[in-house]
């Protein structure tokens, strides 16, 4: 049987495999809310410009609301012979209300319809992801405030470098997430133009009011070029690229969580709710959620590259290739949503071992830079020379198997005669931390202030 929506010039229906490769209803039914929203706006516009009577428009509106209820309650029967969500809904509308339903597609093509639906879907998804990012930022900033003065080792090359505070470390991720949110916001502003009314590719001869539909659907304005509007998917690519960068940040934090909760580090303990056991080793507490968040970037970046590759080399205007835009976007959204929720749970529930972090914050001569800085500040030794002197003192302590602060004054004077007892005051972790008051530095007063500022801003955003 030929397709009832377009089969007029066809003698037979499609081959089974044609129908199978063509149908998108299996995945694009997720656009049903956006499709109905778009159709309601389109019908309202058609009535406004006199292409539908008020009565027809009301029939369409009521019919679409009933269909929305059928879909929401699970009684709607999706048909793959009707290819996609757009034709499933339109066919059902005509079943229910007859003639008026058949008028809905006036001055519209599935090409501008799907471009509109998909923009609406991505816009909704951005709003959801942004809300989740806000929640995670709030959890991180809340914990950063609580641990604003808690020392931990700061690393470069994953080697102990200088002491930092745990709060400072957590706030670094708040900054990254804020930029992720900004990227999504920028993408949202750029995508917020309405393709509806571009029709198949060239516009329409009907006297439509595109500003009206754009406004009805919360778009800033109609798209400016009908060819571009039906074939552009860079709004989806921008969204996926922003999600890829977000996933990269989450993957870094996840990796740190995996490291922190391993026994040799022992910086944090994840809650039972966010760990799993081993089927053979009874003692194990595995950070599976963190590992999965670390891994999700694989899918998300794959989704981005996948769609980018689909779009490469596509001639204007619409081509069926773009039907392949949806699954990567749905998949990446699901992965990002899960990752953000799992990360938020882990951050809220984790218990830092402050004693262990403090102990390791002072290990590995982490205050050596403070010693060098003292030589510069007090003895006015040039920094390069101070670096060299300090290096010799570190070598001496390492040979003795002690900390820098365990060297005697005489031992130190053997290397640099100007050193006096006041040097010991800069060799503690606490003194080192307190001294890092430069803007953006790790001093506890800075961190406490930065955490408070973020919490205030986040409350304002909510
Ligand atoms: N299911 C199609 C898609 O997702 C809808 C547009 C179909 N347009 C067409 N000319 N066949 O892209």
Automatic annotation (TrEMBL):
Top-level taxon of origin: Bacteria
Classification via InterPro entries: Arg_succ_lyase_C, Argininosuccinate_lyase, Fumarase/histidase_N, Fumarate_lyase_CS, Fumarate_lyase_fam, Fumarate_lyase_N, L-Aspartase-like
MF terms (GO), sorted A to Z: argininosuccinate lyase activity
Chain's gene name: argH
EC numbers, comma separated: 4.3.2.1
Organism, scientific name: Brytella acorum
Catalytic activity: 2-(N(omega)-L-arginino)succinate = fumarate + L-arginine
Pathway: Amino-acid biosynthesis; L-arginine biosynthesis; L-arginine from L-ornithine and carbamoyl phosphate: step 3/3
Protein name, entry field: Argininosuccinate lyase
Every Argininosuccinate lyase C-terminal domain range: 365-434
Compartments where found: Cytoplasm
Key words, A-Z: Amino-acid biosynthesis, Arginine biosynthesis, Cytoplasm, Lyase
Keyword Amino-acid biosynthesis: yes
GO terms for cellular component: cytosol
Enzyme class per UniProt: lyase
UniProt xrefs under SUPFAM superfamilies: L-aspartase-like (SSF48557)
Residue ranges of every copy of the Fumarate lyase N-terminal domain listed in the record: 10-302
Protein family according to the UniProt entry: Belongs to the lyase 1 family. Argininosuccinate lyase subfamily.
One GO BP annotation of this record: L-arginine biosynthetic process via ornithine
């Amino acid at each position: 049987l030929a397709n009832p929506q377009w089969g007029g010039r066809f003698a037979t229906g499609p081959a089974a495999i044609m129908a199978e490769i063509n149908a998108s209803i299996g995945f694009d039914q997720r656009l049903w809310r956006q499709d109905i929203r778009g159709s309601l706006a389109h019908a309202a516009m058609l009535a406004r410009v006199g292409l539908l009577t008020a009565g027809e428009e009301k029939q369409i509106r009521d019919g679409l609301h009933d269909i929305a209820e059928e879909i929401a309650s699970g009684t709607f029967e999706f048909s793959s012979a009707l290819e996609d969500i757009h034709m499933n809904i339109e066919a059902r509308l005509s079943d229910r209300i007859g003639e008026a339903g058949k008028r809905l597609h006036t001055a519209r093509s599935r090409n501008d319809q799907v471009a509109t639906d998909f923009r609406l879907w991505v816009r909704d998804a951005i709003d959801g992801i942004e809300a989740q990012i806000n929640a995670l930022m709030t959890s991180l900033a809340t914990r950063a405030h609580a641990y604003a003065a808690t020392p931990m080792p700061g690393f470069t090359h994953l080697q102990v470098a200088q002491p930092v505070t745990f709060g400072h470390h957590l706030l670094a991720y708040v900054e990254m997430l804020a930029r992720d949110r900004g990227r999504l916001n920028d993408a949202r502003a750029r995508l917020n133009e309405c393709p509806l009314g571009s029709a198949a590719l060239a516009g329409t001869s009907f006297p439509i009011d595109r500003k009206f539909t754009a406004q009805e659907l919360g778009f800033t304005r109609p798209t400016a070029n009908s060819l571009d509007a039906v074939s552009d998917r860079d709004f989806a690519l921008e969204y996926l690229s922003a999600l890829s960068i977000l996933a990269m940040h989450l993957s870094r934090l996840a990796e740190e969580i995996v490291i922190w909760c391993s026994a040799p580090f022992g910086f944090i303990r994840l809650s039972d709710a966010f760990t799993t056991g081993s089927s053979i080793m009874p003692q194990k507490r595995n950070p599976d959620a963190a590992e999965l968040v670390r891994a999700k970037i694989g899918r998300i970046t794959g989704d981005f590259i996948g769609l980018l590759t689909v779009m490469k080399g596509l001639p204007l205007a619409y081509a069926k290739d773009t039907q392949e835009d949806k699954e990567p976007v749905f998949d990446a959204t699901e992965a990002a949503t899960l990752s953000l929720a799992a990360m938020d749970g882990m951050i809220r529930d984790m218990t830092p071992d402050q004693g262990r972090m403090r102990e390791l914050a002072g290990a590995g001569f982490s205050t050596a830079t403070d010693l060098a800085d003292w030589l510069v500040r007090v003895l006015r030794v040039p920094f390069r020379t101070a670096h060299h002197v300090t290096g010799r003192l570190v070598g001496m302590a390492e040979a003795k198997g002690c900390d820098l602060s365990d060297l005697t004054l005489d031992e130190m004077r053997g290397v640099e005669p100007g050193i006096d007892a006041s040097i010991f005051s800069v060799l503690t972790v606490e003194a080192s931390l307190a001294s890092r008051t430069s803007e953006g530095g790790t001093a506890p007063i800075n961190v406490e202030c930065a955490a408070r500022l973020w919490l205030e801003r986040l409350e304002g955003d909510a």
